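Contributing new records

If you add data, match the layout below exactly. Sequence lines come first and carry their own label; structure lines follow with theirs. Keep one chain per record. Anything else will be rejected by the validation script.
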Amino acid sequence: MRWIKRLEDWGFLPRLDMVKGMAQMLVWKKKVVLIGPPVGKQWIMRFLSHHPDIASRYSENLDCQHAYAHDPNKIKDNFRKFNRLRISHNLQPGDIYNLDEKGFMMGMSAKTKVVPRVGRRNSRVTQDGKRELITDLETICGDGSSMAPFLFFKAKAGHSMGWYARLDNSNMLLAYSNKGWTDDSVGYQYISRHFIKFAHPPPTPHHNRLIILHCHSSYINWDFCMFCLEYNIILLSLPAHSTHLLQPLDVAVFSPL
């Protein structure tokens, strides 16, 4: 147990075979000679059941750049910047927003629990597999509310918007981009049409607002920033490769979704 906890403190999560290998070494050490029966197949499960403060689970892959973002100094510096802005501009929870995007593959079904006859093997769900991407720009507020969605899809020209002309778009905004993901045009449409429409009360040059976002080029460009300057909208960029830790939408909304 001490060995496992020390490895975890160092940043190395021991695999099951490493734990089992350590147990085998303890057996040999106790017997003084490097011979004897091996540790049983079910030993690891019994060991975990006897120690409820540890558990086995699947590891998750982490990009090395994301790992560098775990630096406590970078995280503390981000919160110091946030607090300085909050105090100096007298920002209330209803003035603080978080922006992030999420892509969805159309026609791709996820695994789900089904109830077939006993003994059936091919419990499959059909999907068309078109893999067309639709992106949703979501905005949440520090007071617990959320804005209407801003959906955009892949299209080359604006005539595609005619498909949705008869829909009631009062509770969302629709747009398009060449690739199906954010670009400079989509970013400017978001801030000038969507944020202005759905922020309460509407942004004015005399009321400070703060948007927490990642430093993507579709947001950090001259048109986007100039609009924010005119309407007293303050931008706080998260440290690079840290959204999996510090982005509220990523951590609290998109991750379980």
